[in-house]
Structures are given as structure tokens and as C-alpha cells.
Amino acid sequence: MFDLTLLQSPHVFLFGISFTVVFFLLFALAQSKYGGNRRRARYGGTVVAIVTAAAAAVWLGFDSLAAGLAAATAVILIGGTIDEISTLSPASQLAAQGTAAAIAVASGWIIPFVTNPFGEGVIYVDWLRLGETFSLAAFLLTCLWLVFLMNSVNWLDGTDGLAGTIGLVAFITLATVSLLPSTQDSRTFALAVIGAGTILGFLIWNWAPARLYLGTSGAWFLGLYLGLVAIVGGGKIATTLLVLALPAIDTVSVVVQRLASRQAPWRGDRIRHLHFRLRAAGISDRGIALLGGVVTAVCGAGAVLLQTADKLLLLVVGTSIGLLAAVFWWRQRAAPGITKHP
Fold it and tell me: Distance (Å, rounded) from C-alpha 255 to C-alpha 272?
């Protein structure tokens, strides 16, 4: 089923060095006076972002893609750090995310095509062309894709180990898909291996009870990097959405609930997200992280085994179930006699 031609010793080195550098840098951070300061312990995500971007740049050969990733990472680190020190407004957060996404896309990280779910071949995203090579549709679609994933991971990062576990399984799945005979995508494989190494090195310190955290910078970067890895070798949109079905459906569900409650969709809370409900139901942070990992692994298996049309169908069914659950939950809370949270 798999063609292991791509798997060579440099990839083992990539994984090992990415894991080792992050692990020992975070070990030093955890042992320092900053490790006991929750705000500064959030700089664990900064370490993940810098090491991942640096390793990816070396592998890419310091080309335009590497430059775009570095610049986008810098924007994320600046915006995320400001948000961690003094909370940014939703508009400012969106502006920072959009800027990072636009920089990455302008440097060449773009969705050129998506697999045709209704037949053979691919569908090229080349509409609204401006000049010979620039497609406004592809630019906007890729920016929306990256911003959506940045917010999905950021909203997911509410319990110890959850975002890291799901990110690790997602990188493993993308690497596995790259080994399929029909894919054989060396760049996606290498970048996914780097991501798996760095996030595993972080997850050891973020597992409940966590000593270090992703923070805003780390969560935004993890979402951005997952989105970039998914598109570098072609449009693996359906695959990535299926792997990240849990945070994606949770994001859509929460937005629907907030709109139904006549609240701004970007207004944060500690009630509606699935991980908060599971915690309220008495499940530990470790249990929530393990559950998220298992669900993501099952979705990852589907991403490897299913065709694009089947992946999309499964996504539609899952999203529909999530939305129905959100509407039911909202109606139950709106019913007379139900005490509402502030």
C-alpha cells in the first residue's frame, strides 16, 4: 500500500534533530525561573515556531518559500506576543493572522488546485486572473484556509496537551499520505516529519499537568504550519480537513451557537467549546487529550484510505451532526428553567 522510497536517513535525522532541539530548549525553559510563570511559560510555543521554521528553511534551501515562512512566523510571534502581554482586540488578531497568511501566500505557498471530488483529475484555482500568473481567487482561498486553521487550533488550545496531540497525529497523517503510491510527495513528507518532531518535543512538556504552553504565538503558528504543509505539494484540503475534523467542526459549531445567541462569533467563552464541556462533565485534561488523539487518528485513517469524494461526504455528515448538536444545546439552554451562564 505504501511506497517507502521517500523514507531515507535524512528524514530520520530531521525528526531526531527537530525533536531534540525543541525538547532540550524547553527543558532549559522549564528549569528556569520562567517555567513557573504561566505567562512566560507560554513562550514554549515561541520555541516550537522558531525551531520548526528554521528547520523547514534549511530543508527548503532558503528559497522564496522559506523566506515567506520566516516572515509569516515573525508576524505571528510579534502579534502573538503582544496578545499574550496585553490582549489584542478580535480585529487586531484577525489583522495579524491575515497579514501572516498573505505574506506566506505571496511568497509561493498557494493552493494551485484541488482534487476533483466528482471525477478524475484536479480543479485548478486560477479564476480572477490579474496578469500572467497571479490568481486573486487562489490568493484569497489560501489566505482564508490559513486563517481558518490558525483560529481552529487557537480555539482548540484550551486544555493541556489537546492541541499538541491533535497536531502530532495530523503531521503523522500528512506524512503517511505523502508515502502513498498515488502521491509520493517529498516536500510534504519532509515538512510533516519536521512538524511531528518539534510538536512531540513540546508535547512532553505540555502534557497534563503542563509546565509549558503554546500560547497565542504557538497556536497560531501550529495552525499556519499545518495549513502550509497541506498545500505545499498540492491541494490536500479534504485530507487535512478530515484529519482536523474535531477542531474544524468545533469551530463551526461554536460560531453557530454564538450567532444563535446573538453574540459576536469572535467573542470568547469557556462554555461552548467541546473540550470545556468534556471538562465540565468530569473528564480530566489527559482524558480529553487522549480522546482528541484517538478521534484524530481515526479520521487520519479515513484520510489515508478514502477517496476525496468519500472524505468530503464524511466531513459533511460530521459537520451536520456537530451543527445539530450545537442547535440542540442552544435550544436546551434557551428553554425555561435552564440557568444560563453569564
Answer: 9
Tell me the C-alpha distance between 193 and 18, whole Å: 9
pLDDT in tens, 49-74: 999 999 999 999 999 999 999 999 99
Residue by residue, DSSP assigns 120-132 as: SSEEE---SEETT
Residue 39 in any domain: the answer is: yes
The reply to whether 256 falls in a domain is: yes
340 within domain boundaries: no
Q: Give the tens place of pLDDT for each residue, 236-270.
A: 777 787 788 888 878 777 777 777 777 766 666 66
* CA–CA dist 63, 75 (Å, integer): 19
Q: In the chain, how many domains are there? A: 1
Residues 6+ apart with CB under 8 A from 12: none
The amino acid present at 288, given as its one-letter code, is I
AA letter at 313 = L
> What secondary structure letter does DSSP report for 235?
B
DSSP code for 35: G
339 is a domain residue: no
Residue 134 belongs to what domain range? 4-334
